[in-house]
From TrEMBL:
CDD domains attached to this UniProt entry: ACT_CM-PDT, PBP2_Ct-PDT_like
Pathway membership, UniProt: Metabolic intermediate biosynthesis; prephenate biosynthesis; prephenate from chorismate: step 1/1; Amino-acid biosynthesis; L-phenylalanine biosynthesis; phenylpyruvate from prephenate: step 1/1
Record gene name: pheA
Domain ACT: 299-376
Name of the molecule in the record: Bifunctional chorismate mutase/prephenate dehydratase
Length: 393
């Protein structure tokens, strides 16, 4: 094929891509109108039956154009997820009229380029107002920034699918008056970042956050005789490698973060688990109201009386009220040896009757009890279409 013919085809592809973006923007605007209707009529955000019918119709239409059913499904899962998140954000803003700020000051760990920075960008991209980023060097500093009104929000990593819970953050949440107002799950894609072209065998020193080292322990074992140097954040590791400007040092972090410091990746997918995600809490000084149309989660912390079966009794309360527990984490109580504080995530809204009843019973039977926050559930599970395989045939 001649180069002129290739260029002509590329021009047509570029034009189609532009048209696709315009159509996606129009679709998004229409879903915003849908959200306004749901606000007026108290209609739930998700309608799984409607979503399934939509996907089946699109798969059948795609088949007429020789488009693979799984390809069509993947594309529209992303579109539907974006629609749901935008609608939830609109409903949440309507339920909390005083919470919309012209400027959002957000504290997070490290500087530009950390996973917390990327998560902050992702979460607040759906919120109105200018974003002011406040990088911090510790979780304690992040919390303090919000407590002293130097920041409006904090973004805190709470758990990772590879390395588990981030205990230091749980310990901070024990002693703060801040409320959890949001959550998000962000993919973590660890890469080996260098400042100069080099070979893997020449790297003698690695810089990264301790959590990153834990998530990439298998890769470190394969490297062999390499010195690992913990840093306060991924951005600190990247800055160090950029400053040293040596072909024997490297950092582990995201490729997008490395680009901000002039670093480039020489090896990707370093995590022990290839499906590696981190969950983040967004916290603020004031709690938020979550509309009943929006799927919600509630995080609470409690300690039980010291008697056999006390924790089981508490969990039975959730079961009896048909409340699904999604996480149970225990942490030592400072100053009380052998006693535990339990962090519990459940699916439910504190404004809902069964949840209110369960919380009242739990508070009465617990030694200490506190709701850390009720917030929109932003883990959007894609609607399953059982007929995909059949429709693909």
């Amino acid at each position: 094929m001649k180069s002129t013919e290739l260029e002509e085809i590329r021009v047509k592809i570029t034009e189609l891509d532009s048209n696709l973006l315009e159509l996606l923007a129009q679709r998004q605007q229409l879903t915003n109108y849908v959200a306004e209707t749901k606000i007026k009529n108290q209609i739930p955000v998700r309608d799984h039956k409607r979503e399934e019918q939509l996907l089946i119709r699109l798969i059948k239409q795609g088949k007429k154009h020789n488009l693979d059913a799984h390809y069509v499904t993947q594309i529209f899962h992303v579109i539907l997820e974006d629609s749901v998140l935008n609608q939830q954000a609109m409903l949440a803003a309507n339920a909390n009229p005083g919470s919309t700020l012209s400027v959002n000051r957000v504290a997070f760990l490290g500087n530009k380029g950390t996973y917390s920075y990327l998560a902050t960008q992702k979460y607040f991209s759906r919120r109105s107002g200018e974003l002011i980023e406040i990088g911090c060097q510790s979780f304690a500093e992040i919390i303090k920034k919000v407590e002293t009104n130097e920041a409006d929000y904090a973004v805190l990593p709470i758990e990772n699918t590879s390395s588990g819970s981030i205990n230091e953050v749980y310990d901070q949440l024990q002693h703060t008056s801040l409320s959890v107002v949001g959550e998000l799950t962000h993919p973590i894609q660890h890469t080996l970042l260098v400042n100069q072209e080099t070979e893997l065998s020449k790297i003698k020193t690695l810089y990264a956050h301790p959590q990153v080292f834990a998530q990439c322990s298998h890769f470190l074992a394969e490297l062999g005789n390499v010195e690992v140097k913990p840093c306060d954040s991924s951005s600190a590791a990247m800055i160090k490698v950029a400053e040293l400007n040596s072909n024997s040092v490297a950092a582990i972090g995201s490729e997008a973060g490395g680009n901000l410091y002039g670093l480039h990746a020489i090896k990707s997918n370093l995590a022990n688990q290839k499906e590696n995600h981190s969950r983040f809490f967004v916290v603020a000084r004031e709690a938020v109201n979550v509309p009943l149309q929006v799927p919600a989660k509630t995080t609470l912390v409690m300690s039980t009386v010291q008697k056999p079966g006390a924790l089981v009794d508490a969990l039975v309360v959730l079961r009896d009220n048909n409340i699904n527990m999604t996480k149970l984490e225990s942490r030592p109580i400072t100053g009380n040896p052998w006693e535990e504080m339990f962090y519990i995530d459940v699916e439910g809204n504190v404004q809902d009757g069964p949840m209110q009843e369960a919380l009242e019973v739990l508070q009465a039977m617990a030694r200490t009890f506190k709701v850390l926050g009720c917030y929109p559930n932003e883990e959007i599970n894609p609607t399953k279409v059982a007929a995909v395989s059949a429709l693909a045939d």
